[in-house]
């Protein structure tokens, strides 16, 4: 043990603790006297007033900033590579460059778009229609061929007189998935990399048009300094359909792959950028999808016009000499038709599932199941955080019913519940339906779930409507506590607006018994729909209902429903689980995933029907063998079944489930 010099001078003691020793104070250095001297204020009151005024100005500035419009993802403007900028243009906005924390001033989080973001989206929306011809030209020229790599210089191919058209050359960074490298005496693929390309634009051919014509999509609507291969973006779209939204992962993977192959993106000082592709890749993927949606709308409009001309010619009418452009619909997807006398289902529904939505005739009896079998259900896992903010709508959903329509249905239901009740004609005792209502959380529209009741979420989930072939047709965004009846009613009304006036349908719902009684008591559906619809419970949830309810609403005990279980919605929810953690661009991502599920289900529809047909034949053979063993005819069994149903449905209302349990316990004791 090392003892200090002062401590060593202390006398030793044989008894007790000895004398108390205190460490001597250390001398301060002269540096402390010259640099740490307190600042003398000659007028403290004046200095205090100045500091208070500065603090008030700071608080006022913060309140002013918070009152302004806010954006979700922060500022769109990012730093740009200095060596990519030309002298005449220093305003690129599409490259992601990391900055040091000290160079960025902390700003309050913005939850709504500001004017700069609205201007950016407006610029994109005005640019995309001008790129339709170029994307079609590139797609038709490269289908079935290897990826086309742009030359080191791209010409605008302007058809105007050179003296009358001002040209401009811009250096653009181009990202590729597979790039051909020409090696002497061979041609090899050396994988992915990026290259710099000089792009020539003019007054009549923008830089975006030149890039798209050559298989590159810009990451900014104007002043583009980076472009991504359309084939690479298509590969990302296919990856998204199978996995999930992964712009960050894809951009980081590209950067890592480029770096491992010796391709680095550096600044003027030779320093590597950490995330050079993330934001630009996200913009390119988003707006290329929007461009393809515009193309698909034009194709659909052209097909509708051709169908209209064919229908006129079929009826002996006069075909128009010139094909006119069909007005763009308000909603691209299933929606109410302007024609109130439809002879067939709407085109959008027929394209989703031609097997069940393209029948030759309508008006099938509900005792036989009706013309259509659809299933509806809600899911409360696809929530949206309020703190994630709301972006600018740029996509017209193909599957989602507009919020205005759902709210209008909710208001109609509120007014209907305020009127006197009607006389219900249900054959199921009210006590049984009350038990079902209390047993299912979804049946109680006023019941707040654990994830609601606060301002943390501004959307609680989705309500779905699918056909019997598990193809998603319609969705509604749930923005209220609980699975209120307005969402199911809104989907049903929207669906019936898309089918002929004489078509019938069976709706399978977890609490179909409760919804059916509410419709009868309060008139939640117009009589034109009520006379053409019947309700049933889904097969899996049916066994949680009272036995009296199962006798009427269980799909396994109802005529005409066959082996339809109504659980296709659960299979759709299972395929959407990967979208649960995502808060940004929730509506767009969900609608895109639903379109992919519908497209893939349509491709597998033949195999799906084949498998179900084989299962039905197998069960039919087993049922016929069982009937042969019993020695009873089908007519006798049906007669006994009707008598059993009549007896069990005629129980007095006082015979509740508690008394039934007591009776069962007594019978078990008696053996």
UniProtKB/TrEMBL annotation:
Residue span of region Disordered: 1-29, 319-340
PANTHER family: CXC1-LIKE CYSTEINE CLUSTER ASSOCIATED WITH KDZ TRANSPOSASES DOMAIN-CONTAINING PROTEIN, CXC2 DOMAIN-CONTAINING PROTEIN
Species whose genome carries this gene: Gymnopilus dilepis
Bias (Polar residues): 12-23
Protein's recorded name: CxC1-like cysteine cluster associated with KDZ transposases domain-containing protein
Annotated InterPro entries: KDZ
A Pfam short name: KDZ
Domain of life: Eukaryota
């Amino acid at each position: 043990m090392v003892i200090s010099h002062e401590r060593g001078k202390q006398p030793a003691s044989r008894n007790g603790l000895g004398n108390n020793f205190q460490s001597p104070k250390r001398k301060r250095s002269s540096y402390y006297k010259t640099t740490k001297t307190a600042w003398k204020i000659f007028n403290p009151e004046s200095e205090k007033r100045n500091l208070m005024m500065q603090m008030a100005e700071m608080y006022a500035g913060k309140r002013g900033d918070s009152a302004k419009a806010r954006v979700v993802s922060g500022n769109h403007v990012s730093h740009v590579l200095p060596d990519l900028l030309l002298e005449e243009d220093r305003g690129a906005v599409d490259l992601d460059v990391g900055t040091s924390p000290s160079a960025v001033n902390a700003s309050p989080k913005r939850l709504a778009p500001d004017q700069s973001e609205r201007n950016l989206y407006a610029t994109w929306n005005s640019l995309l229609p001008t790129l339709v011809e170029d994307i079609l030209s590139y797609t038709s020229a490269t289908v079935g061929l290897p990826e086309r790599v742009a030359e080191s210089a791209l010409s605008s191919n302007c058809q105007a007189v050179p003296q009358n058209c001002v040209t401009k050359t811009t250096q653009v960074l181009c990202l590729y998935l597979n790039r051909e490298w020409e090696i002497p005496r061979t041609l090899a693929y050396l994988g992915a990399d990026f290259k710099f390309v000089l792009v020539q634009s003019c007054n009549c051919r923008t830089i975006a048009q030149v890039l798209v014509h050559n298989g590159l999509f810009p990451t900014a609507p104007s002043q583009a300094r980076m472009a991504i291969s359309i084939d690479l973006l298509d590969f990302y779209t296919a990856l998204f359909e199978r996995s999930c939204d992964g712009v960050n992962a894809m951009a980081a993977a590209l950067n890592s792959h480029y770096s491992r192959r010796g391709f680095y993106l550096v600044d003027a000082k030779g320093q590597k950028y950490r995330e050079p592709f993330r934001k630009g890749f996200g913009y390119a993927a988003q707006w290329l999808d929007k461009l393809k949606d515009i193309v698909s709308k034009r194709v659909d409009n052209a097909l509708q016009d051709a169908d209209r001309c064919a229908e006129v010619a079929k009826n002996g009418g006069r075909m128009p000499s010139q094909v006119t452009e069909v007005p763009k619909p308000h909603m691209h997807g299933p929606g109410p038709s302007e024609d109130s006398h439809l002879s067939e289902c709407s085109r959008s529904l027929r394209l989703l599932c031609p097997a069940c939505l393209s029948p030759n005739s309508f008006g099938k009896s509900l005792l036989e199941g009706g013309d259509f079998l659809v299933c509806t259900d809600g899911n409360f896992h696809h929530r949206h955080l309020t703190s994630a903010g709301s972006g600018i709508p740029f996509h017209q959903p193909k599957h989602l019913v507009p919020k205005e329509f759902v709210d209008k249905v909710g208001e109609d239901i509120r007014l209907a519940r305020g009127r006197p009740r009607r006389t219900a004609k249900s054959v199921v005792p009210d006590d049984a339906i009350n038990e079902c209502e209390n047993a299912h959380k979804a049946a109680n529209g006023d019941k707040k779930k654990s994830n609601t009741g606060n301002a943390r979420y501004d959307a609680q989930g989705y309500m779905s409507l699918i056909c019997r072939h598990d193809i998603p047709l319609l969705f509604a965004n749930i923005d209220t506590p609980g699975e209120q009846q307005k969402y199911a009613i809104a989907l049903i009304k929207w669906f019936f607006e898309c089918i002929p006036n004489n078509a019938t349908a069976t709706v399978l719902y977890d609490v179909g018994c409760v919804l059916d009684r509410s419709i009868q008591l309060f008139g939640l559906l117009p009589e034109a729909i009520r006379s053409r619809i019947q309700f049933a419970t889904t097969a899996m949830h049916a066994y949680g209902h009272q036995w009296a309810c199962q006798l009427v609403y269980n799909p396994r005990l109802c005529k005409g429903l066959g082996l339809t279980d109504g659980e296709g919605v659960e299979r759709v929810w299972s395929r959407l689980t990967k979208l649960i953690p995502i808060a940004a661009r929730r509506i767009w991502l969900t609608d895109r995933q639903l379109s992919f599920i519908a497209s893939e289900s349509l491709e597998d529809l033949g195999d799906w029907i084949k498998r179900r047909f084989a299962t039905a034949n197998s069960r039919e053979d087993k049922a016929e063998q069982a009937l042969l063993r019993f020695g009873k005819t089908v007519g006798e069994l049906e007669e006994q079944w009707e008598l059993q149903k009549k007896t069990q449905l005629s129980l007095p209302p006082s015979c509740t489930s508690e008394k039934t349990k007591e009776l069962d316990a007594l019978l078990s004791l008696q053996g």
